[in-house]
Write a structure and sequence with these properties.
CATH superfamily of the largest domain: Succinyl-CoA synthetase domains
CATH architecture of the largest domain: 3-Layer(aba) Sandwich
Helix content: 40-55%
Largest sheet: 5 strands, mixed, barrel
Radius of gyration: 65 Å
Strand content: 15-25%
Distance between the termini: 200 Å
Shape: rod-shaped
Number of helices: 12
Strand order of the largest sheet: 1-2-3-5-4
Length: 415
């Protein structure tokens, strides 16, 4: 170990302070050691500012979603692992090792392998993410937000002055002229579009007046539509509280945004038709419903009127006093019959009474006296008999006379 290395090692073992600072060489050595611990890593990005000088490759590798970028280089000796047909804008993955040059304090990124991201790999990534989203339940129908029948205001995310924007606005206003829009124009192609669309989703989702958000683009190639399968964008749409409609305008390829959106429209025009009701159609439906209501009311009225007419045609309803008259007639007949029976009973009873009267009259002592007989009794009112003594005072009663006499003698007569 030489003196310089010994000093560096000794400095690294010390705690840095104002009175015991590290030398620059020790600090640089520490940084170099930490960076070299990272080793080689695979990095994905977009190529820009490509420059081949003497077989050496120099370029910028930009992040796919943000403005971050790094400078990369590949020396001539590793060219066999570098794709030969790379051009600016290519999406690539590279095996990179960061290097720190202690002498001047600079960091460089050396590339050992660099290749384009193939279509098959992209599709594989998309399918893996699609499966993950499904497992998380973000694609399930029961987790979707239902669209309002008539939104208060529609948020529209689309390219400025694009056909998609015109299609949505014009078709929506044709269907419902009073519809209102909150339009946010963004890029709809390229990696920069992702962050803009995510920001627009958040802005519209926070707007309490917006009831539904349409993300519209008028179709494009598979590569053009890759941004709508970006995980961050897809999750932003899935997590929005406001209903999201995907209107990318494609049929052959299905980006992940279609899976998580609350409604998938085949085109921007289709989105306008499905988000906003057709006022002419709604008026026709309303007219049909009113006609049905009127018809049913009329049928009900006719039915009830027929029932009323039927009830009114009944004798008891036509003449409410009819049953009273009928009962009165029956009562009169019963009274008449009762009177007749009472007369018969009275006449019969009178006849019986007369008969009994005549019988009683025939047995009456007075009638006997009237025929010339007399009733003789002693002074005590007892009937006289053979034992009546002589000199007994008697009371003799004839039809019209009452005679007082005295017994001079009593003689019994044989019959």
């Amino acid at each position: 170990m030489n003196e310089t290395t010994s000093d560096v090692t000794e400095s690294q073992s010390k705690v840095s302070s104002e009175h015991s600072p590290w030398p620059v060489s020790a600090f640089s050595k520490s940084i170099k050691d930490w960076i070299e611990k990272l080793g080689k890593v695979w990095v994905e990005g977009e190529l820009s500012q490509i420059n081949n000088r003497g077989g050496n490759l120099f370029a910028e590798l930009r992040d796919l979603q943000s403005e971050n970028s790094i400078s990369i280089h590949a020396w001539k000796g590793s060219s066999q692992l570098i794709a030969p047909d790379l051009v600016q804008g290519d999406r690539v993955v590279g095996l990179i090792r960061p290097q720190f040059w202690a002498k001047n304090g600079r960091i460089s990124m050396q590339v050992f392998e660099l290749k384009k991201v193939g279509l098959g790999e992209i599709l594989e990534r998309i399918e893996r993410l699609r499966k993950q989203l499904t497992e998380e339940g973000l694609t399930l129908a029961e987790n979707k937000t239902a669209l309002p029948f008539l939104p208060n205001k529609i948020g529209l995310i689309t390219g400025r002055g694009s056909d998609a924007e015109k299609d949505v606005l014009e078709n929506a206003k044709l269907r419902w002229p009073e519809v209102e829009f909150e339009v946010v124009n963004t890029l709809v192609q390229g990696e920069k579009a992702i962050s803009e669309i995510i920001f627009a989703i958040g802005e519209l989702d926070d707007n309490p007046d917006v009831d539904v958000i349409i993300i519209a683009r008028g179709g494009g190639s598979f590569q053009d539509l890759l941004i709508f399968s970006d995980e961050q964008l897809v999750r932003a749409a899935a997590n929005a509280k406001t209903a999201v409609v995907s209107a990318i305008g494609h049929e052959n390829d299905k980006p992940l945004l279609d899976d998580v959106a609350d409604l998938r429209a085949s085109t921007p025009t289709d989105a306008a038709k499905r988000v906003v009701p057709d006022i002419a159609e709604e008026r026709r439906k309303l007219a049909d419903l009113l006609a049905r209501v009127r018809y049913r009311i009329q049928v009900k009225l006719d039915s009830e009127q027929a029932l009323i007419d039927s009830l009114r045609s009944r004798p008891i309803i036509a003449n409410p006093y009819g049953f009273i008259d009928l009962a009165s007639e029956g009562l009169a007949e019963r009274v008449s019959l009762m009177r007749e029976r009472m007369r018969v009973r009275i006449d019969r009873t009178e006849t019986e009474i007369r008969t009994l009267h005549n019988q009683a009259k025939a047995l009456s002592p007075q009638l006997t006296l009237k025929r010339g007989y007399s009733l003789v009794r002693d002074e005590l009112g007892n009937a006289v008999d053979k034992n009546t003594p002589v000199g007994q005072k008697l009371q003799i009663r004839s039809h019209q006379l009452e005679i007082t006499a005295t017994t001079e003698g009593v003689k019994e007569i044989d019959e």
